[in-house]
Amino acid sequence: MSLINSVPEMVITTKLDEVLNWTRKSSVWYMLFGLACCAIELMQTGGPRADLERFGAAPRATPRQSDMMIIAGTLTLKMALRTKVLYDQMPDPKYVISMGSCSNCGGLFQLAYSVCDGVDKVIPVDVYVPGCPPRPEALTEGLLKLQEKMMQERWLVKGSAAQAAA
Amino acid sequence: MSPTEIHQRLQDQHTDAITSFEAAPLDPFVLVKPDSIVEVCRFLHDDPDLAFDCLTNMSGVDFLKEDYIQVVLHLYSYTHRHAIVIKADVSREEPSMPSVEAIWKAANWLEREIYDLLGVVFTGHPDLRRLLMPEDWIGHPLRKDFVEPEEYHGISTRRESLLK
Amino acid sequence: MSLAGYEFEVQRDDGLATEEMTLNMGPQHPSTHGVLRFVVKADGEIMRTALPDIGYLHRSIEKISEKVGYHGFMPYTDRVDYVSAMQCNQGWAMVCERAAGIEVPRRGEFCRVIACELGRIASHLLSVGTMVMDIGGMTPFTHAIREREKVNNLLEDLCGARLTFNYMRIGGVAWDLPPGYTEQVTAFLDQFEPLIDEYNDLISYNKIYVERLANVAAVSKEEAINYNLVGPNLRGCGFQYDVRRDEPYSIYPELDFEVPVGTGEVGTLGDCFDRYMVRIKELKESCKIVRQCLEMIPDGPVLARVAKKLKPPVGDAHVRVEASRGDMGWYVVSDGSEFPYRTKIRTGSFSAMSIVDKLSRGLMIADLIALIASLDVVAPEVDR
Amino acid sequence: MASSIGQYLKHAKDAAATIFEGMSVTMSHFVRKPYTIQYPDRTAVRVQDTLPLRYRGILEVDLEICTGCLACERACPIDCIVIDAPKDKVTRAMLLSRFDIDIAKCMYCGLCSEVCPTGSIHHTTEFEGADYSLESMIRRFVKDPVLAYKAKKGEETDPLIAPILDRGMEFLAEWAEPVDMKKYKKDQEEAAS
Amino acid sequence: MQSFIDGLIASGVFGGLPAEAIYPAMMFLFASIVVFGFVLPLVTITIWLERRVWSRIQSRVGPNRVGPQGVLQGLADGVKNILKEDVVPDAADRPLFVFAPYLLVWGFLATFVVIPFSSALVIADLNVGILYIVAIVALSAVGVLMAGWASNNKWSLLGGIRSAAQVVSYEIPAGLALLPVVLLTGTLSTQGIIQAQGWAPWDWFLFHSPFTFIAAFAFYISALAETNRTPFDIPEAESELVAGFATEYSGFRFALFFLAEWGSLYVTGAIMAVLFLGGWQIPTGWTNNTVVLNIAQLTVFFLKAYFWVFLAMWIRATLPRIRVDQMMSLCWKYLVPLGFVNLVGTAVWMVIWPEGNTFVPYLMVVGTLALLVIFFRRVLYHLRRAKPELYFNPAI
């Protein structure tokens, strides 16, 4: 990116940014990573009712090819360490949707001894989706929110690339 | 066979092993000395009139005030369609009792779970490791005096409510 | 190999020595149905062992019950087995009712059974769907999910949630059937029953599918009982036992339904295909039960008045419920206070998981997937 | 596997026949309509409007009819509702100064709305609440402290409050009415005899 | 192609440039056009089509937001993948890891050299065309194995090994299934094979005799296996091996895998069209304009190839995955013997009817039509049984 970064800050880079963001947002491949109850709704979101693939979001089995990780369900302490590893395996730019109360903040399992209260303790989260579990449309809305966020990113404009990567 | 009859039959064979029998509760149970649990269970499993071929449930209950851990076995016979509850009390300080894994394979994981969550050591168990909690977890969470650790591998287990 | 942590082994040795390959299947793996991990020792494609490592979804539900009270624990039971939460609701309600001696209105029992059987349809649909997905067919999975969505819609009309119902209360159910529900459910059943046949045409007897499942991981009846396999897994071995029929509870004795068993129609008795087929047949039986219930349902109240702070007498109670994954044991110890002293849930998946190690020896890696899918393991039910 | 030629051919025939059948099923789906609900923009009706009244979506509070009884706060097993309702020392009236619900934490179980005497706190059919931070997901219903509602004897007469109370009662009516089983049985027996 | 350039030179477009300079330059230009102007759009459209076909069968809508009806989906996927971070795992064998995807892409792109899109549009009409394809496709096996090995991931390794076993095994039935056609035409040149057929179905080799009919499907099955398509997608079996040989690949390199997979799918269809469906053959005599003729031929060829591509998509949406040992037994116990039977049968056929039987092709066409009728009757039956349809939400 260093070469492109030397391009002066111009309208054209902003436009180009928009095109790049557009490709990114139109092809959000999410990792097949279900943890608990929300995983069923995640499956159903990929199913005929909500059909996340309309927005170009296809499931991938491996973190290496995914752009987005949907933390669907309760994150236990035992699993939290693995989740971190999986997140690290994803190539940049990567996004995280925290789906449901449990991964937002522990939800109803805050009382538990073995649950990591909130996935944001382990990895950064971009969008939180409420619900226990969120219905497929709610997750779709979460994806749309994430797309909005993606469109606002500036990769080519000086300095912000490093900022966004951080 | 009714629980009373089952107890009678058990009493005839293993008098020393049985501490008491309660017929009044919802699920009548036989309280057994932990050391002789294997012979009692072996008899219950092998005797053709009893034929308890299935261990449906096995749980541990930590009685903090009374200072013992109770291991509860729910037995069921598919052959005769009758059930009985076997209980055994072990001390809280050094909880230990023989394993019934050799009789019912189902006990393998159930015992591991009780070991994991309550710390009861089942002697003679082929593979007594933690089942649910991570290997490096400290303490047995289902004990009544278990204190939740502050953090695990750098992940804090507390979370302040945003409402407070 | 250690089961504790995430290891990264770099295998770069010289020479041509052969060695067993240790594969970590999971915790994130597309076909482990949630977070399970198998430590597979394989010689090429053949497995020596597949040790399950569970607990990645251990959410300490049993401990939480000691903190939230009898009524407050009801939402948590949904999460024990989220795929068929209704039966978990029923299990908890029944064990509390038994411990505290509460009677449920008759209409309430009917509502429960209708909800449970719809839940069973939803659960089995997911089970057979994911099974095909694990074998590699994507379309049958989506078709199953599509029908499941319709059941979810029905349950949503009934109790306002798609997955975590929290429908039942100690003493009955929280919502009566909505107006026009009978017609709605009948319309669904009418269009669903032919689709089971379509599903069979599409995939069940497909040659590739049958070849993948037949003769794989057969369980004998004795072995199944010794390992305490329950529900469809037990019936898949040809042993006709159903808690609903043999230890009847609720209104099941009044209903007329079959208990399908495995027949070994394409291979050995008790193989993966038999377990799969039992579920397909149970779908039809559940439809039958729902139809009967809708016909027989009486008028009246659905919920008995129960103390806000329920305090069952000192003692313990154990009930068994036929959940979608089989006989589910609920055990509650009461110390006379408003909080349960100890709750223990013995689930079907737990014992099903414990047999995986034994069954997996000598199978191929692809068969392990079929085996797990055919046992219909749901991770939170194993870990709770 | 194929021990004889007959069996060998049978395998091939089975494979061809079942694949043929399966392909015909999938082919038939080309002419069936897709089932997808094209949320959010390509639907005739908002998805929210098609959900049943019982649907347990995001919680909402009608402060006009909140009695400040704190039943919901107590019923919640996970403390995701916080209500501050101090009693005004002078007027002896209850003043609602805070009514916060953390929708990120809520488990949408309905235990709170079940115990509400007026249907003030209820689940809506709304499910859209995704946001970029957890702080913004807290719903703060009290802007300025308001007086708690006091149930009147008889009909509600205030034209502002009456429709809201009616709506609340509609929500309440969805819930099953608990009966005293002993009394109910006695009544039944009497009716039978 | 050569005649095309010759024609251009003759028309004097290049002025006085020497022919030795024109040939390589034109070849290079043409190859670039083929890759960037033809293969890339082709692959993106194929991916989009596959996803739509698949969605349709699954009662879904499929990608429809990116561009009109989602046609730009493949483009977005591709550009996004190129922009992703380039990850090479620490434990990977770096040179091999980096090189493997190129090998795979090379393997399928090189086959475009001999595929005749029309009577004039062929890069090189090699006299060993078919042999060349069989040889060059094997490169992809090396690529996959290399990718699997270099990733130093056990899933990848298993995937690579499976793929190697699969491709090596299925080369044999594929080769055997080609032979009847070669036997019939006596040439290995792709243009030669097409010219030996006619535009009408009964002139196609598919319906030449029962043996070629079976050979066509044997070849198709083998080709599916060689391109790792369902039901033979065991090297990348998602539910078993995570993503098989591609597990550790991300970004641009993964996009190359993607490209190769769908590209080779088209190649499969094209070879099927060449060998058994009469390639670009259209009724002659209705036009003398070379350009119009070539475009018509191109269209016909394209449609024929896409029929097989569509069939592969449809099969993928229908069938589950075969197990690795069953895949082997299918190859060695069923397809290889069948291949020999076809070969010998065709030879005998040629001895009996050296000019081809005049009656059998018509019979075969009619038989196929009858089969189609039965098929669509089943489809109707399924449609009727599924009624009445119940939607989630009648209002929507």
Structural class by secondary-structure content of chain B: alpha/beta
CATH class of the domain at 52-179 in chain D: Alpha Beta
Q: Please give the oligomerization state of what you see.
A: heteropentamer
Low-confidence stretches of chain D: none
Q: How many individual helices of chain D?
A: 5
What share of the residues of chain D does DSSP label as strand, in percent? 5-15%
Written description of the protein model:
The complex is a heteropentamer of chains A (166), B (164), C (384), D (193) and E (396). Chain A has seven helices and five strands, in the order H-H-E-H-E-E-H-E-H-E-H-H. Chain A is mainly α. In chain A, the strands form two sheets. A three-stranded parallel beta sheet of chain A has the order 3-4-5. A two-stranded parallel ribbon of chain A has the order 1-2. In chain A, strand 3, helix 4 (77-89) and strand 4 form a beta-alpha-beta unit. In chain A, helix 2 packs antiparallel against helix 6 and helix 3 (37-46) crosses helix 6. The longest helix of chain A has 16 residues, at 11-26. Chain A is globular. The mean pLDDT of chain A is 80. Chain B contains three helices and nine strands. Chain B has helices at 3-13, 37-46, 107-118; strands at 18-22, 29-32, 54-63, 68-77, 82-91, 96-98, 121-123, 151-152, 155-156. In chain B, the strands form three sheets. Chain B has a five-stranded mixed beta sheet with strand order 1-2-5-4-3, with helices on one face. Chain B has a two-stranded parallel ribbon with strand order 6-7. In chain B, strands 8-9 form a two-stranded antiparallel sheet. In chain B, 45% of the residues are buried. The mean pLDDT of chain B is 84. Chain E has 396 residues and is mostly helical. In chain E, helix 2 packs across helix 10 (251-276) and helix 3 crosses helix 10 (251-276). Chain E is globular, with a radius of gyration of 22 Å. Chain C binds chain D through residues 68-69, 71-76, 102-103, 105, 139, 146, 149, 156-161, 164, 166, 171-176, 178, 198, 201-203, 205-208, 210, 300-306, and chain D through 11, 14-15, 18-19, 21-22, 24-26, 29, 35, 51-52, 54-56, 75, 77, 107-111, 114, 123, 174-181, 184.
Provide tags for this entry.
A: 166 residues; mainly alpha; three-stranded parallel beta sheet; two-stranded parallel sheet; 5 strands; B: 164 residues; alpha/beta; five-stranded mixed beta sheet; two-stranded parallel ribbon
